[in-house]
Amino acid sequence: MDLNLKINEKNHVEIGGTDTIELTEKYGTPLYVVDEERIRNNYKRVFNAFTKHYPDFKIFYACKANTNLAIMRILEELGSCIDAVSPGEVYISLKTGFSPDRILFTGNNVTNEELKYIDETGVRINIDSVSQLKKLAKMVVPEGYKVSFRINPMVGAGHHKHVITGGKMSKFGIKENEAVEVYKTAKNLGFDPVGIHTHIGSGILDPEPFKLATNTLMDIAGIVASEADIDFEFIDFGGGLGIPYEPEENILAIDEFGEEITRIFKSKLNEYGMGKPSMYIEPGRYIVGDVSYLLTTVNTIKNSYRKFIGVDCGFNTLLRPAMYESYHHIIVANKAKDKATEKVDIAGNVCESGDLFGRDRLLPKVEEGDTLAIMNTGAYAFSMASQYNSRPRPREVLIKNGNSEIIREKETYEDLFRNQIIPKRLEQ
Ligand code: LLP
C-alpha cells in the first residue's frame, strides 16, 4: 500500500513529519492538515516530467481544487500559472500575487457583468461558446484582443459521470467540427485568436484517453491553423491527472506520461507545421490532492443493523463520498498499525442518510475518542465544503518542517448568518 502513509513510534499517523494526534490536541477537530513540502514536490514532479521534453511548458494550477490563500502563495512562489473558472477565482489569484498574464479564465455560462470584470483585470479569456464570443465583441475593441477557445474534442473520461467534460453529453466547449468556423468568426470580428484548449475530465489514471485527446486536439489545432490561418501561441490540454485514492490503485506514471504526451505534441506540430507554441496543462488534483488529511474525532459508536462509527464532521466538510461515491482511505490515526478486525460504516454528523465517508471499512477496534484520518483531502474538499446543517466550516493548518500554522480559522456561529437580513417588520 502506498498512499504515502507515515506512522511514528507512538503508532500515530504523521503528516509532514508532524504527529496528527498532537495536532488534534492543539487545534481540535474537524481539522484539515496540509503538507507544504508535498505541494512543492508534486508541482516539481509534473513540471520536470514535461519540461525535460518540451521546455516551453507551463502549469496552470486549476485553483478550483483548493483556493486557500497560503496554498496559492506556495504555487505563486513555485512559478505556477492559474486556471480560473470564475471571477472569484480570478480575484483570489490576483490577490495572491499572480500577474494577469499568468491567469487564464475559462468560464462557462458567463454573464456580461462577469465578462466585464475579467476584461478589466487584463486576464486572458478562453472562450467556451459562440454566445460568449459575441458578448465579448460588443464589450471590447476586438482589434488585437487575444483570445483562445475551449474545444470539445469528443473524447471524455473521468472517475465519475459528473466529471467527464468531453463528448456528446458535455456542456463544455465548442464542437470540434465547428472549430474552424469559430476561429474564422473571431478573426472577422477583429480578435486575435492565439490559443486552443480542451479539458476532457477529472481523476483519470489511465494515460490512454489523454493520448487520444492530445492527438485529437492537435489534429483540430492543425486544421484550424491551416484553414483559419492561425499561428498558435499556446495549446492547452487541461487537467484531469488522477491520483490513487484506494490502496491498490495504480499511480499515473508521470515521467512516462510527460514523455508520451510531449512526443505526440511535437510530432503533430511537425506534421502540421505549427511552429513551437507553448504547451500548457491545468492539473488541480495532481498538485494538491494528496497533500492533506481531514482529521475527525469519533464521538458515537452505534450497533444498529450495521455498526456505525459516528464522527464530528459530515458531507458539508467533505462532499466527495456523498456526491460521487468517491473512496477516501480512512485510518484510525491513533491506532495506525493495530490489526484490522472489524468492518464498519463511517458516518458523518449531517442529518441525511447519504452522509457516509465509507461503508464496510476494515478497521482496528474503534472507540469513542479515537481520531480518524481521512486521506487525500487536498483537492475538492475544503473548496466544496458548505455550511449545510448550519455547521461552521473547520480550521486548516499548514505543516512545514514539522511546524504547524493556522491558514484558515474555523468559522463561528456568527459567520453562518453573516449577510442575512431580517426585515424590520419581522424584528423581535
Ligand atoms: N481545467 C478545467 C477547465 C477544469 O474544468 C478542471 C476541473 C481542471 C482543469 C482540473 O481538473 P483536475 O486536474 O483537478 O482533475 N469536484 C470533482 C472534480 C471536478 C473537476 C472540474 N474541473 C471531484 O471532486 O472529483
Share of residues in strands: 15-25%
Assign an overall shape.
Answer: globular
> What count of domains describes the coordinates?
2
Low-pLDDT runs of 5+ residues are: none
Radius of gyration: 23 Å
The oligomeric state of the chains shown is single chain
CATH topology (level 3) name of the largest domain: TIM Barrel
Mean pLDDT: 97
What is the CA–CA distance across the termini?
59 Å
Helix content: 25-40%
CATH class category label of the largest domain:
Alpha Beta
Largest sheet: 9 strands, mixed
CATH architecture title of the largest domain: Alpha-Beta Barrel
Q: What is the number of E strands?
A: 21
Describe the protein.
The chain has 428 residues and is α/β, with parallel strands linked by helices. It has two domains: 6-35 and 289-416, Beta Barrel (Lyase, Ornithine Decarboxylase, Chain A, domain 1), CATH 2.40.37.10; 36-286, TIM Barrel, CATH 3.20.20.10. Helices cover 30% and strands 24% of the residues. It has twelve helices and 21 strands. The strands form three sheets. Strands 4, 14, 15, 16, 17, 18, 19, 20 and 21 form a nine-stranded mixed beta sheet that branches. Helix 9 (254-272) links the parallel strand 12 and strand 13. The site of ligand LLP has 22 residues, from helix 10 and helix 11.
